[in-house]
Amino acid sequence: EVSRTEELQTSRMLLPVTELEQEIVETVLLNPITVICGETGSGKTTQLPQFLFERAFGTKGSLNPGIVAITQPRRVAAVSMANRVGAELGVGSPKVAYKIRYDGNTSPETAIKFMTDGVLLRELANDFLLSKYSVVIVDEAHERSVNTDILIGVLSRVVTLRNNRWKENLQSTSPLRLVIMSATLRVSDFTENKTLFQQQPPVVNVAARQHPVTIHFAKKTSNDYLDEAMAKTIKIHKKLPPGGILVFLTGQAEIESVVKKLNQRFGAKDHLKSQKPKARESKANSNAANGDIEIEEVDLGDTIPPTPELDEDLKEVDSEDSGDESGFEEATIDENSSPMHVLPLYSLLPSDKQLQVFEPAPEGARLVVVATNVAETSLTIPGIRYVIDSGRAKERSYNPQNGMQSFNVSWISKASAAQRAGRAGRTGPGHTYRLYSSAVFENHFEHFAKPEILRMPIEGVVLQMKSMNLDVVNNFPFPTPPNAVGLSMAEKMLSNLGALSNTALTHSQGKSQITELGRSMSLFPVAPRFAKMLVTGFQHGCLPYIIAIVSALSVGDPFIHEEALKNSLNDDDSEDARQAIRKAYFKSQQKFASLGDHTSDLFKVLSAVGAYEYAGGGESFCRANFLRLKAMEEIHKLRAQISYLIQSTYPSINAHFVPKLSPPSETQLKVIRQLITAGFIEQVAVRKDLAEENENAGKKFQSCRGIAYKAIGIEEDVFIHPSSTLFSGEPPGYITFTEVVSTSQPYLKGLTVIDVS
Ligand code: ADP
Ligand code: MG
Q: Could you report the per-residue pLDDT of 188-213, keeping only the tens digit for each?
């Protein structure tokens, strides 16, 4: 029996899902799989578990004694929703509990369990039948995170297995039910996918009920969305009636800088002092040791463009105020002087600080929450009336050329923009200010975001699945399946790298098992090839060098090449001057290539990185040494990020980022060469005369010009690219390459001589 306060009872009655309680419960009871669509705020996350709980789901001795599980893509949602539902039911933990990585408050008493989808995937690895549960609610399915997609795929099978067992009376427990919840109506990838669900699951649509939200587009779209977001916040605060402001930006660094500036100027000073952040740090945020890295834990590439001082911003805004005035004409107030209560909200923020956004702002202060996507659908922040939408988000993307995953700021989808806008209409009529024009919205925003699984290197996904003990990758019922040929090639590649147990028979059937090495590799958000180099790079103090090489390979060639150099010489340069430049060029090339004595293009890059850092970086060094400044700066940044990631994954290993690199010792060079060979094991080329044992076999050559090589998987002869440091020496027998470029003939680049001694 549940007793709720009268106030709570009333507000529950107003939620759109409550009207459909009967229909929802019956559908779930009568069907193994149910899909529920309802706009953000309609009550799905908070009410569904309660509906089922009140029908004795999760109650010992009932027909469905197993726990009610609700999965979330984000940890903050799992924690805050467990708190909220516990409070609504008036029971709290451990009856309603949460479990996220490294943290949780579940107990044998738990009836409703909120968890991240990553946690449930790991539980599946140990108990494929999920015998503890009677129903799994997969929430926020519209976000299409890789974990959610994989979870739905696995659960489609688990549900069938559990139901068969139940029918055959093999298990004394209940069947398992699956509920998929989405904030958008686009659920056809789930409902119409026959591989996934043979029988189309019923869809319950919850009507939207919310207050009108007026949407204001910007007249023009500026790249400086941080400044614009800040200016708009200030203007709303000064001129518009009370109501919280929710600002959508893309990442931690941005958010912290905006919060700081707004607080400095508009924060309630005394209040801030008394509210020092608590020293206690949530366990959940300590580090990522021993676990898989969830997307939200990685914040690569978050750089803050330099912003002028706030006062200058204000002047600018005021003077060019021709801007977008809509929304300000009604009920503007004369210069509001009350303080702002500014709070950040992003995934990596410690839980106790995240939860502050749910607490009422101090008397008289205006709540301003500066958030990432976290606030887009999963969380409801009370009292928000104004939304400022930068239109951007940090998204995982993948470059098939270099195999590097990155998190880039890009435009959101129209569906996301609608979700963000809807955040202004929860408590009353609201306004949404989009910091982009309607033309940009129409022409550059996709209708829906691409599922994350299509934005990742597939060998990374396969490795991730194998690390969760999901073995039959080829027949896996993905909601949106990646290319099948790509999948089996990925398996082959992973076997070659030693990440999967290697028998030809098993991997053609998608049944190869992950190895210990593979498990460690799965922790890194870089291509498996690079992950392997990093994991094995712990030996002999080689890690900083491997990090530098992986960073350089990911960024791309930092050298200015001879062709480009020729083009840059001016016609009116005197012949002497040209000679001098050419001489300097060859001298610097020789200097870098002397590391490892012209045997590796990767050593040459390593040497350039070392020299650049030793000189303290800078444009003049790059000019003097024919390096691209931007590439060098990016390599520097990436080194710092990868070091940070390794440090937080393996706290016992000293991977603190030290920009300066001392030159590697002979032993270290040897190890690095082996690591490169291991990382590029299927990108090996052999000199043709040696491969075919033809008449030239063993002959000495002056240079690599015209010397043919054979590479695995490439039909034609391949050649060493003239830009390689190996080119002018005697052609080596065995090399690894990072790249094949086809011009008049296929050329290999990024070469390293394999040590066959
Ligand atoms: P949905 O999952 O459909 O987006 P929710 O169940 O999360 O909706 O929220 C429904 C409503 O419950 C919200 O609109 C809000 O009014 C209320 N609510 C949810 N969480 C909280 C909270 N932490 N504090 C106050 N009200 C909340
Ligand atoms: Mg929800």
A: 999 999 989 999 999 999 987 778 89
